[in-house]
Design a protein that fits this description.
Blueprint lengths: L3 H27 L8 H25 L9 H24 L5 H13 L2
Length: 116
């Protein structure tokens, strides 16, 4: 019995869901009015942006690493999804430890611009 098609479909669906979740998060940030936001909400938005930015950097870095050809298409799809999830977690952890500092810079700029 071949489960390759099912596994590929499942992997693609999971990847699409993760991507649409990230895109909806960013679009909700674009449409928000931050004049009424508390300091905590403002910092959360800045951290979300920094995590998204770091995730994109990690994805581009991953593209530079040669991939092995030992896996099937189904396995490759699931590995891609798991790697994306891992990259999201790495980005979130990097943001929480303030390793880049972009969130703090954005926060200070938004405080000035919105007069919060």
């Amino acid at each position: 019995m071949d489960f390759g098609g099912i596994s590929t479909y499942f992997g693609n669906q999971l990847a699409e869901n993760a991507q649409s979740k990230t895109e909806s998060k960013i679009s909700s940030l674009d449409s928000s009015d931050f004049r009424e936001a508390t300091d905590e909400e403002l910092m959360d938005v800045c951290k979300e942006f920094e995590a998204y930015f770091m995730e994109q950097i990690f994805k581009e870095m991953k593209k530079t690493v040669p991939q092995s050809d030992y896996s099937s298409n189904a396995t490759a799809s699931m590995m891609d999804y798991m790697e994306d999830s891992l990259l999201q977690e790495y980005a979130a952890q990097a943001t929480e430890t303030n390793s880049l500092g972009l969130a703090q810079v954005l926060y200070e700029q938004m405080k000035r611009n919105y007069g919060a």
